[in-house]
Structure formats: structure tokens, C-alpha cells
Amino acid sequence: MALLEVENLSVNYGGIQALQSVSLSVDQGEIVTLIGANGAGKSTTLRAISRIVNARQGRIILDGKDVSRLPPHEIVRLGVAHCPEGRRVLTRQSVYDNLMLGAYVRNDTAGIKADIELQFKRFPRLEERRNQLAGTLSGGEQQMLAIARALMSRPRLLLLDEPSLGLAPLIVREIFKIIRELHAEGVTILLVEQNANLALQHADRGYVLEAGNLTISGKASDLLNNDRVRKAYLG
Fold it and tell me: Which of 83, 102, 181, 193 is the most exposed place for a label (fewest CB within 10 A)?
């Protein structure tokens, strides 16, 4: 059953059309990846789903409910967390405070405290730096914090935008190990990732976005063996 359905989504930035009639779905428990060149509209798709940007047309349906006009905080309340490109941690706040802010839609004090400890167990380096300002963390540590902060809202659907961007290969492997663990725990993930090969190796299904249009979709294993995808995105 589809947890997320996007129907004929179009987004404009001024006179520039960023997305044109994009339709996709993500089933409960899946990892679905969205690949494409820089500027293809991948991040815009995630921003439209989380309602950070407004769509010109189309519908966003979450668990059967049309959420196309809801404000972003209501999207979070309904179980969608967005981990943005570039991490966007609050650099002048501590690691602990960043995690607390990730739970801003919740009021279950005991549950929030337990989830912070869960994130520290999942990301031991964050526990070592719990009182450190987020801006002093390494790039990899900031990415871990961004994911942990998103998980503090207890999402059913995690939107992950470029989690490997700018990170060393060893840290990338560590981040994707966490993604696999989240998947095993039942978190549904829509993944935008510059490393198409890595993304398709971890995903169940994939979509190719080119100049704001979806051009190819299918099982991740099929896309890995698709000649057009291989030539354009897999090197």
C-alpha cells in the first residue's frame, strides 16, 4: 500500500518550471530513490512534499489523505521528516538542543528523552559531543546529527536529500549503514542521492528525473542494468 502518492506535481520558481507533472509513489517500508543530474528537480520534489515550497498544480497524498495545502509543521505531525541537502543544522546550538528541536511537534517528555538516548546509541559520536556546538562538528558528524534530528519526530516517512554530499568514502559507508538499519526497523525512505550507483544498490525502486520530468522508473535492480541509466548516471 502506498504511504505517499505524488500526482502530477508541477512547481515553478518565478518564470522557471522546476517540475512538470511529476507522479511517483512510495509504499510502506520501501526505500525509493530519486536520481538525476544537478538541477533536475530532485530537491524541489522533496521540498514540495514537505510543503516547504508551494506546488503550482498536483496533489500530495499521505496515507490516503490529501495534504497538498497543509503547512509544513502539520506535515511533520502527520509523520513526514525532511533531512535537507547541506545538513542545515543549527550551528550555534548544541547537539542536544538540535535533537530537542527535532521533537518540536511532540509533548511526550519521557518519550523525547528516551528517543534522544536512542539517537545517541545509534550515533555514538553524537553522544560524545552532546554539549558541543553543532557548527564545530565535522561534515560527517553534522550529517549524522541532521538524520538524528529528523528521526526525533518519529517519522513514518523520511525524506533524505543528498546524505553523502561532500563526505569522505568511509563516512558515506557509515551513513548508508545507518540507512539500511532504519529500513530494517521499518522506516520508509524517499532518498535523493548524487551517487546514483550507491542509491540504487540500497533502494527497492527508483525514478529518474531529467529537467523536471520523470523519464524512467522501475525496480532498482533493473535501473542498475538499464543502458541509458548506466551511461548517464552510473559511469
Answer: 181
